[in-house]
Design goal:
Layout: E1 2-6, H1 12-19, E2 24-28, H2 32-42, E3 45-46, H3 50-53, E4 59-62, H4 67-75, E5 89-92, H5 98-109, E6 114-117, E7 120-121, H6 123-129, E8 132-137, H7 140-150, E9 154-161, H8 165-194, H9 198-205, H10 213-223, H11 233-250, H12 255-269, H13 280-289
Parallel strand pairs: 1-2, 1-4, 2-3, 4-5, 5-6, 8-9
Antiparallel strand pairs: 7-8
Helix pairs in contact: 1-6, 8-10, 8-11, 8-12, 8-13, 9-10, 11-12
């Protein structure tokens, strides 16, 4: 199986590394130095652009930033749409809108090329450890072909339905995460203001009904005032904008999501666009001191 991987960022870099253990790989990244470093580590092929990366590939996997990035990779001047062979499959791990997924799937289908939107959850550590949750939108036949490949870094690989369903599921994920993080930030802030042992309080409740991945993995770094890690506020705002736009279309009421999105905008104004999303606590603490 010949694979191409396009987008060697925080998530894509380790994901491509897992695939390189068992498949012939060609990689491309907009920042050339990252691609060169990856090739140095894994001894596979480096392409000059997305188009050349996809020429011989049976499956191309992309992991880029947003709708515009994905559109450029597929449809741009050096896009892969003109080089993918009939019968190939494009698997997109980016977090983008369901609309762009459907548009690309239709264009590729005209050329006999399959498509699957497959956003992931689990963060950088999940990508490094090969323990990601992957939400897939595709025809069942496409999903069945790709699923064995994704087992290289997927802990849970779920077929959610037609193209776009994976992205809609990722929106649910981000909506839930945003609310959880704001609740966690408020809980820690309340404990600090109440004068109790915050670490002891979080330890005990993390073993009860209030527990979540965010609580278990983020409260120690939040208490340490450490936010130079993890999923950046800038990226969360991009994702929440996608959620809110989709909600306008389907009529969902996302009052808490809208509010937390505004809070993240305030963090950006504080210069925290690259801080971890758990920096919602820092916003509360700064308000307290003002």
């Amino acid at each position: 199986m010949k694979l191409a991987f396009i987008g060697l960022g925080t998530m894509g870099y380790p994901m491509a590394g897992h695939l390189a253990k068992n498949h012939a790989m060609t990689v491309y990244n907009r920042t050339l130095s990252k691609a060169e470093q990856w090739v140095k580590e894994h001894c596979h092929q480096l392409a000059d652009n997305a188009k050349t990366a996809a020429v011989e590939a049976d499956i191309v996997l992309t992991c880029v930033g947003n709708d515009d990035d994905l559109r450029a990779v597929v449809l741009g001047e050096d896009g892969l749409i003109d080089s993918l062979k009939s019968g190939a499959i494009l698997v997109d791990h980016s977090t983008v809108s369901a609309d762009i997924s459907r548009i690309l799937a239709a264009l590729l289908a005209e050329r006999g090329i399959g498509f699957m939107d497959a956003p992931v959850s689990g963060g950088q550590q999940g990508a490094i450890n090969g323990q990601l949750s992957i939400m897939c939108g595709a025809d069942e036949s496409v999903f069945n072909q790709v699923q064995p490949i994704l087992q290289a870094y997927g802990k849970t690989i779920t077929h959610m339905g037609a193209v776009g369903s994976g992205q809609l599921t990722k929106m649910v994920n981000q909506i839930c995460v945003a609310g959880l993080l704001q609740g966690l930030a408020e809980g820690i802030h309340f404990a600090q203001q109440a004068g109790i042992d915050v670490e002891k309080a979080l330890n005990v409740i993390s073993h009860g009904a209030a527990s979540s991945w965010q609580m278990v993995n983020r409260y120690p770094t939040m208490l340490a005032n450490h936010y130079e890690h993890g999923f950046a506020v800038d990226w969360m705002r991009k994702d929440l904008a996608i959620c809110l736009a989709e909600a306008e279309h389907n009529g969902a009421q996302l009052a808490v999501t809208q509010l937390v999105n505004q809070f993240y905008a305030e963090i950006q104004q504080l210069g925290g666009g690259r801080w971890d999303t758990s920096s919602l606590l820092l916003r509360l603490q700064k308000q307290q001191t003002n």
